[in-house]
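Notes continue from the previous slide.

Worked example: a multi-chain complex. Inputs as given:
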Amino acid sequence: MRNVYEQISVDQDVCMHCGACVGTCPRNAMFLHDLTVASNEECNGCGICVKVCPVGAISKNNGGDSR
Amino acid sequence: MRKIETDILVVGGGPAGSSAARYASQSGAEVILIEKRQEIGSPVRCAEGISKKLLSKVGLSPDGKCIAREVKGAKIFSPSGHMLTISEKQAGDEVGIVLDRVFFDKFLASLAVKAGAEIRLKTAATSLIQESGKTAGVTAVDIDGPLEIRARCVVGADGFESQIGRWAGIDTKLKTKDITSCFQYRLTGIDIDADYCEFTLGSAAPGGYVWVFPKDEDTANVGLGLQLSQLKDAGEIKRMLDRFIAKDDRMSKGRPLEMVAGAVSTCAPIDRTIADNVLLVGDSARQIDPITGGGIGNSCIAGKIAGEVLSLAYEEKDFSEKSLQRYEKGWRDEMEERLYRNWMAKEKLVSLSDETFDKIILAISEIGVEKLSTLSILQAVEKKYPELVEEFRDLLG
């Protein structure tokens, strides 16, 4: 699982795999598999995951979709 | 792709999933419980507090390893430091025992196994299999790669993430004010009264609270939870907790044994927790107490009800929404009113200023209450600050 649809970035060194972003995402675009958190093409870059992450592992990418 | 088949598939090996699997197995149904982690009960994502009352209500008597500490009550600190001590009897539903979830969750899972359930670890559901509009199982990934698990009923016990429910079209979406983001350390070498759980309200965690739940004489789960709607910057939760610990002389010399992150729902009961061949239980069904954020007890209770209904449904060969309606009614009869009332109370509490919190804590500690219910608090406060109670009036009805 990589962040192919890069509206947001998850810093895997900071992420604690707690799933707070997965349950919060209004579009169900976040996944927690294989101890990796990532987003899919449903992500519209709303950024709510950035705020809910207790440790600050998620950031919004400038310029949105960078495919 | 590899394929396996079962009668009932439970997704998630926490208290809700294990309880549902245990009681569903009793009818002789084939039950598989999958857990995405490599170990039941770990990593812990919980402050581990539960009341003795709630634990005995679900008929559980876990062995000593599951219980880290029994406490005598709770201490509640107002923003300016007024302290209210309440006994376990007064404190109600969530205080009394500090569990060791690593053991407790394994204890519950072992009861499910004894009843006949099969457990598969490191198995993550990746999607729901839908055939002619009906749920027929999940696709998953385990240690040997992708597989299909076909089932006549899928139980979503997948926690806060609640993906099974959302894949099945059940609305479990949360408003930002009904999500609490949390961070916790297990601190050792701290100077605490290990006979009490502590809660600090107000500006240390506006819209939430700081908790200190003792694990032994000098070790405790020290955490902070805050409404998502109050958060502005990335990583704010951890920084706020770090500031709280640095400012508290008893805590600042402590050293962490564990870091825990997570989120809990603090919403009103949701409209629907079932669909044809799908049932949600525990955090995924948003059965968490909106005031305390506690969910262990409710998950065990709802899990038991779910399992009993699944047993009946198996015997009747009918896992339709209509058949599962008995679960919907069962858990609501048990806890819906309490959840709704506590959600209303939470909505009020988060709007209070530090000054008001101080007044309320002071009023209750001066007057004293027999049983710390919403009603008795309101009555105590009313004697001293009638104007404060005015806005809570609708909670009395």
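Summary box: The beta strands of chain A are 8-10, 30-33, 36-39, 58-60. Chain A has a mean pLDDT of 83.
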